[in-house]
Amino acid sequence: MKNILIFPFLSISTGHHHVADALQAELDSQGFASEKMDIFSHTYRRLEKLTSEAYLKWIQHFPKTYSGIYRLLACGQYQIDKRYTMYEWLFTQQMRHILNEKQPDFAFCTHALPSYLLNRLKPEYPDMTVVNVYTDFFVNQLWGRENIDYHFAPSIDIKMQLMSEGIDQKNIFMTGIPVHRMFERGSDDTCQHHPPYTIIITGGSMGVGGILKWVQDLSPGGNILYKILCGRNEKLYSYVKSLRHPLIEAIPYLHSKAEMNRLYEQASGIMTKPGGVTISECLQKRLPVFIYHALPGQEEMNVNLLKKRKLVTDMRNWDMQQAEERIEAFFQSNEQVKEYVKHVNEYLGEISDRKIEDVLKRLIRNKKHSLT
């Protein structure tokens, strides 16, 4: 039996946790037990709650400041000798304690900070296999590189970046961003619907970002039914319910991925922020994506690649009075729909030969053989 740890970061429901859950589900389906470990809440439980709240307020109220600091600290060319001494001081000893107690054979990192720490500690634990599981379409400087055994790449662009930074090609698996097995791949004609079109609007499970303002500006003309995923944003949920509009429906936080999958199946498209997991789920379902807002940091970086690959439509500068007409025009244009499906199929083709379940089987089998 293998000891398997999965390291997201912070306790708030972000893409790091969704990817960790997806990995856990795949491992469980193969009969391997795993444990999620958030080193921050494990070490500083009270401080972690305050930090999570401060982070959410920061990106909401001072996005430009956060974006500037993020670009300064996390962007740019990777430097092997760059150290983050504060993170090391706060978390190294606790991470070492976890490794000594759990003795993991595998450590999967779905966040850059535990990856950085394990990259530093790996020489002390040579029998531990460490895997970076990237949760965005952008890889910042904090992610460990040289002592990481394997990398689950979200796109060919990231694979090429990692190779340029010295990572051996055979240690990179084109898995895409792992999504839960509940979200089965959609067919080529997923987005060929007839009016009224059902459009999901989501701002993430925490309901942060510009979603409230966007909903306030909605002016349904009759051909689109809007389903607003409110997450844990009670203010947003109450506002949408108070509208009592037949074409604007409030959806509370969904605890079941099966419910979310059914919602995807009913939808023609989605308006969302460019979070890595949400985008990956939509690509799997071949659900057209319209970006109305991007949080500072990773989401800003995600937009750049997604637009370059023509996998999303950027509507951040659209006139709201014309937005509905432009969305209708998209679905009514066979040329636009075919072009979208073409680019999505190209992306899915990149990752189709490396299904996450097959990669996990291979890694665990190789580990077993190396131990024997």
From TrEMBL:
GO terms for cellular component: membrane. It comes from Bacillus vallismortis. The keyword Transcription does not apply. GO terms for biological process: glycolipid biosynthetic process. GO terms for molecular function: hexosyltransferase activity. The keyword RNA-binding does not apply. Belongs to the glycosyltransferase 28 family. Gene3D superfamilies: Glycogen Phosphorylase B. The lineage of its organism: Bacteria, Bacillati, Bacillota, Bacilli, Bacillales. InterPro entries: Diacylglyc_glucosyltr_N, Glycosyltransf_28_UgtP. This is Glycosyltransferase. Residues 16-179 form the Diacylglycerol glucosyltransferase N-terminal domain. Keywords: Glycosyltransferase, Transferase. It comes from the Bacteria.
